[in-house]
Amino acid sequence: MSDRLLVLVRHGQSEWNLKNLFTGWKDPDLSEQGLAEAREAGRRLKAQGLTFDIAFTSVLKRAQHTLDLALAELGQTDLPVKRNLALNERDYGELSGLNKDDARKKWGEEQVLIWRRSYDVPPPGGESLKDTLARALPYYVQEILPCVLRGQRTLVAAHGNSLRALIMVLEKLTPDAILKRELATGAPIVYRLNADSTVASVLDLA
Question: Does the reported pTM lie above 0.90?
Fold first, then answer.
């Protein structure tokens, strides 16, 4: 039986995470802590004896840099990598680049909380989690899942909300449950899938 391996890892802390800014499709790089988290992700995967055949990431440098550093720890810097904006973070629209405290002053704490924690209410000019799922899931089904089911060991380095889209399907979570799902930066989640694409086992390396 082939090893239907899928590993998801959220990028390490970015410079804007550190500054408490809404990031979305903006493109800051990793902070010093984020660089360390990305390397640690690679070390944790290596400690499990895992290697990969293919990797996927977004078009944003914090996810790409996380992937590069993790692969360097694994000694797999020549791994084929596919980059696609379908795996980008949720677009926060007019909130992008704003300090979260400043956004609360401008729109009110309750409204900002609704934008951040509701499933289908987008911020002005941006995407809801539902919108993010609508672009990430087809890409997963058409591009990533077939690799896994063929037995290609697959690593995905992406973002909190685009990964929630994949986790929602893998773990059969409701919209309410996925909103509550916290993903640690730089902490790999290791899935092994059955032939019908359901989850056989999951191991969180946080």
Answer: yes
